[in-house]
Design goal:
heterodimer; A: alpha/beta; UDP-N-acetylmuramoyl-L-alanine:D-glutamate ligase; Protein-Tyrosine Phosphatase, Chain A; 2 domains; nine-stranded mixed β-sheet; B: alpha/beta; six-stranded mixed β-sheet; four-stranded mixed β-sheet; 14 strands; 25% helix; globular; binds zinc ion
Amino acid sequence: MKPIRYTFAFVVSRLTIIALRILGRNGTHFPGAVAMRLCPDFIQHLPQPKKLIAITGTNGKTTVTNLVSDVLKNAGYSLSNNAMGSNIQEGIIVTAILASSFFGDKSVVDVVVLEVDERISPRIYPYLKPDVLIVTNLFRDSYRRNAHVEFIQMMLEQAIPSHTQLIVNADDPISSFLCPGNPRISFSLKALEGEEQIKDSRIVDLVYCPKCQSELNYDFQRYHHIGQVHCPSCDFKSMYPDIEANINHKKLNVQYMNQNLSFDVLGDNPTDHYNLLASIALFSVLGFDLEGIQTELNKLKIVKTRFDQVEVKGKQITIMMTKDQNPIATSRIFDYIRHQNDRKCALILINENSEHHTLSENNAWYYDTDFDYLKQDHVLQIIGGGHRILDLKVKIALTGIPLDHYRSTSNELDTSRLVDLDLVDAIYILNGTKNIPEAKQIRKHLIERIEAEVQA
Amino acid sequence: MIIEMLYPEIASLYGEKGNLDLLRLCFPEAEFKMTKLNEEPYFVKHPVDLIVMGPTTEDFQKHIIKRLTPYVDRIQNLIDANVHFWMTGNAMDLFGKFIEDEEGNRFLGLGLFDYHARLYRPKRFNSYVLGKVQNMEVIGFKSQFSQIFSTQELNSWLKVERGFGLNEKTMEEGIKVHNFIGTQCLGPFWILNPDFTLLYFKELGYANDELPFHAEMMDAYRQRVLEFKDEKFINYP
Ligand SMILES: [Zn+2]
């Protein structure tokens, strides 16, 4: 028997979800807050899903959650996930409610797929115990909330149940060694022929051997601490992967247990390949026939909020999610931009704008981000929009980018006006997590301007 | 001029490399010694003018203490000889008597000053700092797991007006002994406070009347000061 307080909170919260839906609102957070208000230990009483798959890690959570959910749905599973909602307690509660019977006494779907913010693991996993947990990677993230990788590692170590099957990236020597006693499947992307190593990152979160503090040797450094390492003084080295892949002609070729399979890539970046590999590893753990999964995955396209490109009269506009407060995600995007050959404009809207009226956000993370990647001949314009444009200007100046390349406006939506369409052929709109609609609005303005001003 | 950065590969969390960028820009002629964790610090056998260290992880705090303990006397001599030290974030913790973790375990610090640090993970102390160094208005951010306590009165460096000092119960922030400055303020602090930094760099021999991009940094500074004084801005949760 569940406590009455829980059952009451469950029903009220469920009715709140229904009411919000009738009003046409996306109730992915508020009903969860209601449940916790009415019953502070609500999560502890939620029924354990028949199958619980959790996805955590600094970058790639949402993409992987979407990928695996889509494939599972297509395979006929009834499923509940928080892909469109929040990845903290409230969002997780709403997802769990939708997966449960009316009074919250049992789970009624085949699978629950949860994207879980690393920080809240201790408040989730002791109660909703994942059968499988994908850890995409671990990097430094928001300084205010996440502090540093060692702290996040500690939180996960304390929270992950000992029976949970882990899926880890063997190319991440931090997250792949989490919870050494747990069963795990690991994947790796082989160094591609001629693949450029990125050794000029401002930050590397793993420099020293976790066992003996000798300086690690990077045998291959894909970016930041992602790659292959070994310790010159002890036996610590990157994990030998269970699933190995390489890229050939836009195909991800996977070797696993004497099988050779080929998948369409999701995008051009290693991060896209890692997200795909994490999903493939999950399906192998779930016992799926990988040839069938191959067909399903090849039908999918990357979620559009992360990378979205259009071309109008020869001008390319790309919206890219860069995640505010996250120097790694932003550096990866800057690295992508520096490798494109067009005459470029970077339109930077990463400043937690939605909170600006009550929060003076610390922009220290700019100083861990590889702005140097924008210091090149092809980047002809950098445009800042939003509340922190003065900080951005200082960072641009200290990077050594000529200030006459920088224009800005505190009104994000006005940034489209500042793009010099005679000067640039490719415009990258770099938004944060909270201003996706604004980024789309800016793109719309740009398209209108191109239609009106550019000769075909 | 010789500037030593202690362990920048691990002790420069929260954007503190930005301070180094500004330093390099302002002192192009200076010799920069970047000391790694397993190397003997340059200051042990050579004269230096400035030693800088930033915040690190709680685990590396212990490793750094272990590396620096053999040189406590040398560090004391350098402090007494008015060498400049600039220690930010939890770098300050290392110089006290001990660091106490959440289970009550104590790790001996360098014992150079009469205070100790206590860790409160997973609680994170985030705060704006608005205050005065001498008569100059300065700003900073705090994001940390530790608090510093002392049974003695310390020679604080900064009087806080908004935010908190060495711990949540005091408005006295940082420590200044001769030219040793320790502060929990992040930022990177020098970039956030160009007028303060100009004076500080002048002490170190900077000869111009302005920093590079002084005007741009001042614009950003003025915006922050207004925000930090504005009651409707919640205190950096
Ligand atoms: Zn080792």
